[in-house]
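Give me the fold.
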Amino acid sequence: MYCDLNVPYSPDDPEIAATLNFLAELGYTTIALSQSLSGKLPPNPTPPPTPTNVPKNLTILTRLNLTITDPAQNQRLTSLAQVYDLVALRPTNEKVLLNACTSMECDVISLDLSVRQPYHFKFKMLSAAIARGIRFEICYGPGVTGSGLEARRNLIGNAMALIRATRGRGIIVSSEARRALGIRGPADVINLACVWGLSQERGKEALCEEARKVTALAKLKRTSWRGIIDVVDGGEKPKPKGDKLPLNQKQSGSKQKAIPQPESNGETLKRKASIGSEVVVEEAEKPLSKREMKRRAKKARFDAAGGEESTTGNT
């Protein structure tokens, strides 16, 4: 199951159908159509409508890419998580990146690695985000399309620094390609990850396992209480329809009718109590111990010997 969790999309994009068909031909199964916002958020942000004629083997998700320049801009992230399937943050400075790793509620931290970053990636800061279930995203689209040599050089250098700081953990790879021309097959993406410093197994996990974890955790946050408790079924048994009872209940009812009932007179309660007491005594009777069996056998022999002596005395 290969995933591409960052495919830019707008309702008036005429090439989105060709892009989705090409992704399906390459073997991708889960696609996230992303919408980018920056600055002041609209009062009621809603994802764009899903395109028509989507291939049947594709699972379409909605995603919001939010560019943050001020740490105080995270007041509505919880409400955005209820509208979009994925919420990705794009910090522009080190202070915002620190807050995103430690306190902001998001699913993915997507850095613009095609530009030169004015700070260094630190293991302690990035490992805090990975421990919270947040993944870091590397987008190869700006490096394979005609963005220039500078963008490609920055992408390779920043990707290597990010992989070195995270020890190769918590990395996902997406395309961020606006056209089908910028999309690469899963094998080519794994080779790119090997060039950046990931092993072949880690590169495959970045497309499959890690991306699947992102979608699963995001769904759990939306449908559960604080991402911890998820009520799947209340455990209530369905009631029988109408007067029809199950087969076991019918059999038990017939057995109950076959039991003779005591006569309805003044001694009914006493008889029921006596019957119940006899049943309880019989059920409560335990098997005899060896010592008790020996004692009863000795008593039986003694009684038999006494009976023989009495018969001989009479004769």
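The longest helix spans residues 290-314.
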